[in-house]
Request: fold
Amino acid sequence: MQAIQSENSHFQTVSILEAAIDDYENGGYGGKALDVARVALATALATSCAIPITPKISLESVLAQLETVSTGQRASAVLLMRAIVVDGLVGTDDPGSKASRIVPQFIERSVPDIAKHLKTSEKRQNFEKLKAFQSFHGFAVSNFEILNNLTDDLVEIKNLDADLRRPFANRLFLTYFQPFGFSAVKGKVESILDQVSRLVACTDSRYKSYFDQLSDDVVELKQFCIENRSFFTAGPINRFVEVMQTAITTLESSASELFYCNVAPKRKSIKAAEKNTHFMKPGGPLSFQFLWKIPAPAWLSM
Reply:
């Protein structure tokens, strides 16, 4: 229970941070919005690393404490990687600031897998390491661009199944997007793709259960994106949700045509009663004509 509460608290602070970043960027990168965004970043970092949060919390004080924390380093490093791509937010632009020294060193030792991928050990200057870590954000997001370019054709989505799953299988992206709900998003996206594949191939009574599961998964993913808004969930994941919603609406409206059938007897039995009905005409006559097969006289069988 405590772990779930801690995770919810983390997602909440990250959502607040993302909203503050949006306000800061949309407000022209300055003024009070900058102060709010920095406090939101400090709070998110402190929550990840179990640093006590006080009414006077500041980004400078939290960054100073990062050098000695023993928990939550990976999540905090990723949040810093996210933050340093926002102009002026962290304060690493000034080569003489403490942030320009603390941030790249903390990230490098906290996410060694990403640091290895970027070969930061070969870069001697902190500003070089910072540039490398800043570049990873765009690289990671670009790998999910396929979700932005989907059509609402379920057959096409099924054909792209392997390509759509590929970025979710990358361990570096798992590290980078994890603070933004990557595991939950991955589970729902993969379930949706499973249902799409089954629906496209289905021709029996299981169709409705696949359709219902697909609809439920899309609704749940949409709700998660709303409750845990970030550049990740509001970007490519939300676009994926929109495409799937359109596909479901189209499929639902065409389902009657897809499963249209005409029931008719294979052959007419001679013993069957022929009936003419006029139910379509109010007050019309209702008549039945019976055709009987008359048995041969008994003397013919003697």
Observations:
- Residues 145-258 form one domain.
